[in-house]
Amino acid sequence: MSDRDRVTIATLKARKKAGQKYSVITCYDHPTARMQQAAGIDCILVGDTLGEVILGYENNLRVKMDFIITLTEAVRRGAPSVFLMGDMPFLSYQVSIEDAIRNAGRFVSEAGCDTVKIEIDRRHLDVLAAMTRANIPVTAHLGMRPQAVTQNGGYRAVGRSAGAGAELVRLARDAEQYGAHALLLEAVPADVARTITQNTCLPVTGICAGPDTDGQVLVMHDVLGISVGHTPSHVKPFADLTGVMTEAFTRYHKDVIEGRFPDPKNNIPMGKGQLEKFRELIAAG
Ligand code: KIV
């Protein structure tokens, strides 16, 4: 994709129809968004994973609307052509339908998102429908729902029994009927993800959901090898930037301590002929 081709929902649907995959990655800042667009990434998710990977919390439940909106705006400025997905944080859509529409609307009108993502089970179908009626394009996130981590007592794959897998397939179908714009499946068996993907015309993005979804998403820190702690098995690091960045910080630190930085070419010279005058003024007190 070149910078000029804006990726829209129509692009993703056409890709699906043609059997072509699309790429999705998380992003939380402007310079990285520029790089991701230049790399040809189709879709950026400003995910509430920022709670863990940017803010260092143990989960994503403390992410605030104002903060994620500010970061999403920055990402949009860096990547005007990508399909931009904003992630509605915990309690931004669960309290009331009015709240949900107002908060979702901010992602679209303030941050320029093409879709907003909410984590759903059957109880969220009404809010999904209400947001859709308000002309907000909603991506329904099914399967493992990180915002339910406390309720579920941890992060667990969903749909591994025949009954639970069939219920996920029904939920995906219902989400489509209630107006979902796209689907995202997290931590579900590949067979269940394939069945859902084959039975909908919506673009389906997967994470830890096997190879058959229309698109794949990963958290950028995992892709770059800068995640802290345990690397889950679905992750494929494409670089080891922890090593590269630590090396750069070490060299900077040493150069400062040992007087090699700054060197003369990093300094601001005085204006022409000003140094002598300056010395005279100082000498005169
Ligand atoms: O918040 C996020 O980054 C996500 C992805 C892991 C899908 O929801």
Short description:
The protein is α/β, with parallel strands linked by helices. The chain has helices spanning 9-17, 30-38, 50-53, 65-78, 97-109, 125-133, 149-152, 162-177, 190-198, 220-224, 241-257, 274-283, and strands at residues 22-26, 43-46, 83-87, 115-119, 138-143, 182-186, 204-207, 215-218.
Characterization of the model:
By secondary structure, the protein is an alpha/beta fold. It is 42% helix and 13% strand. Strands 1-2-3-4-5-6-7-8 form an 8-stranded parallel beta barrel, surrounded by 6 helices. α2 (30-38) crosses α4 (65-78). The radius of gyration is 23 Å and the shape is elongated. The mean pLDDT is 96. 3-methyl-2-oxobutanoic acid binds at residues 26, 45, 47-49, 87, 184, 186, 207, 217, 219.
Low-confidence stretches: none
Alpha-beta classification:
alpha/beta
Q: CATH topology of the largest domain, anyone?
A: TIM Barrel
Q: How large is the share of residues in beta strands?
A: 5-15%
